[in-house]
UniProtKB/TrEMBL annotation:
InterPro entries: DUF1003. Keywords: Membrane, Transmembrane, Transmembrane helix. The keyword Ligase does not apply. It holds the Pfam family DUF1003. It comes from Actinomadura fibrosa. This is DUF1003 domain-containing protein.
Amino acid sequence: MTTRLDQPREIRRTLVPRPHYDPESFGRLSERIARFLGTARFLVYMTVFVAVWIGWNLAAPAAMRFDPYPFIFLTLMLSLQASYAAPLILLAQNRQDDRDRVQYERDRAGSERSMADTEYLTREIAGLRLALNDVVTRDFLRSELQQILKELDPKDQHSTLS
């Protein structure tokens, strides 16, 4: 049995209970997040978030600052966000690759069917052409009848003899 990469694996039973999640729902969620991370809106939100964070920690009274310069906690938060964003983006790309692979297989099968149909029709047309070569056409029949009429017409025979 070959495993298809575009199909999810069956859930295996283990002795240690693991949390169960729906891979399809998780995949759709990851695609939505990855799609959001690639928008200008996300960049604007992140820019505003970082600017407010830095502004607050520079301008607020000393007792209200929670991340003084050099903003170590901000760096940690951005690293955490990046560590989650990268696998989510990769998961979304893998799912898109799987969809593309399935679409490619469908396109290839359709192309093969079209090619086979075209070859069949080409053979049929060639067969019809060969069959039509043996059929008398109207123009050929007319010319043959005119030739016979000329041969049977006595006027034409006397003029050709004299």
